[in-house]
């Protein structure tokens, strides 16, 4: 395996970590209505667990509410139950064939707690990046030991992997910074 392939695989894995972080951050409340708060809640329907976004239309008619209209009105109570059991701290109200969720404004203490959660998610993602770097470097060492890569190629591969991790850490920091600012904005 060449150094380019090792670096490409490391980059792909690191980009997946950034995408995962972005999805996790979507689920954090900001005081404004956001479909990302509920779209990945798993709902029991037809004997299976499905993400809410697959079984209902989710919209934000205004900045302080989320509206959920299931494709099948018979599962509305299951959706309500799943939202109540999730840890988002919001209470839906059934309004005929749809659910409405009012988003209350966040107090200062809750904002600080949510921003620290965002930072924790970021730190967990950085640990994943470091693990990917470690695996890639081990792979480079193995290839060098087996004579597939020269010493110079192995050094360049490790340098390239280090550049990739710096680039990806910058992306992670930017994602967390934006989410933190969004949460703390009154």
Structure description:
- By secondary structure, the protein is α+β, with helices and mostly antiparallel strands.
- The chain is 59% helix and 16% strand.
- A hairpin with a 2-residue loop joins β1 and β2.
- α1 runs antiparallel to α4, α1 packs parallel to α5 and α4 packs antiparallel against α5.
| CA distance, first residue to last residue | 52 Å
Low-confidence stretches: none
Class by helix and strand content?
alpha+beta
Number of helices: 5
Mean pLDDT score, rounded? Answer: 88
How much β-strand is present in the residues?
Answer: 15-25%
| Overall form | elongated
Widest sheet, order of strands? 3-4-6-5
Give Rg in angstroms: 22 Å
DSSP E strands, number: 6
Helix content: 55-70%
The biggest beta sheet is recorded as:
4 strands, antiparallel
SSE series: HEEHEEHEEHH
What does this entry show, briefly?
This protein is an alpha+beta fold.
Question: How are the secondary structure elements laid out?
Answer:
Elements: H1 3-26, E1 42-45, E2 48-51, H2 52-55, E3 56-62, E4 65-70, H3 76-85, E5 92-95, E6 98-102, H4 108-145, H5 151-184
Helix pairs in contact: 1-4, 1-5, 4-5
């Amino acid at each position: 395996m060449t150094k380019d392939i090792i670096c490409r695989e490391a980059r792909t894995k690191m980009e997946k970590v950034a995408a995962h972080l972005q999805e996790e951050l979507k689920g954090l409340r900001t005081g404004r209505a956001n479909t990302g708060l509920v779209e990945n809640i798993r709902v029991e329907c037809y004997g299976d667990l499905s993400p809410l976004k697959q079984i209902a239309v989710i919209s934000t008619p205004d900045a302080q509410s989320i509206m959920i209209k299931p494709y099948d009105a018979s599962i509305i109570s299951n959706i309500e139950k799943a939202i109540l059991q999730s840890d988002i701290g919001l209470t839906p109200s059934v309004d005929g064939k749809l659910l409405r969720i009012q988003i209350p404004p966040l107090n200062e203490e809750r904002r600080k707690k949510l921003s620290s959660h965002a930072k924790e998610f970021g730190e967990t993602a950085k640990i994943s990046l470091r693990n990917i770097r470690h695996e890639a470097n081990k792979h480079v060492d193995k290839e060098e030991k087996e004579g597939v890569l020269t010493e110079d190629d192995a050094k360049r591969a490790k340098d390239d992997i280090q550049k990739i991790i710096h680039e990806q850490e910058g992306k992670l920091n930017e994602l967390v910074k934006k989410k933190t600012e969004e949460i703390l904005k009154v």
